[in-house]
TrEMBL record:
The name this protein goes by in its record: Ubiquinone biosynthesis accessory factor UbiK
Transmembrane segments: none
Keywords: Cytoplasm, Ubiquinone biosynthesis
A Gene Ontology BP annotation from the UniProt entry: ubiquinone biosynthetic process
Keyword set includes Disulfide bond: no
Major location category of this protein: cytoplasm
Amino acid sequence: MANRSDFFEEFQKNISELIAKSPAADIERNVKAMMAQTFSRLDLITREEFDTQSELLERALARIAVLEAKVQALETAASLGGSPQE
C-alpha cells in the first residue's frame, strides 16, 4: 500500500510541475495581471474598507440624529422664551 501512496504522490507532483511549466500557467498569470490592472482602474475598494466606511456612516448618522434633537429642543425653548434643558 505504501508503494501505491508514493506512486500517487509522485504522480501528483509530476502533474503539478507539468502544469507549472505549461503555457496554462503563463496564461493564468497574464489574466491575473490584466484583471488586477483593470480593477485598479475601476477604483474599487476592499470589503474591509467598505465595512469600515459603513460603520463610520452609521456613527455619523446617529450623531446627527442626536444633534438634530438638541437643535429642536433649543428652537422650542427659544420660541417659548424659556431656557433649554438637556
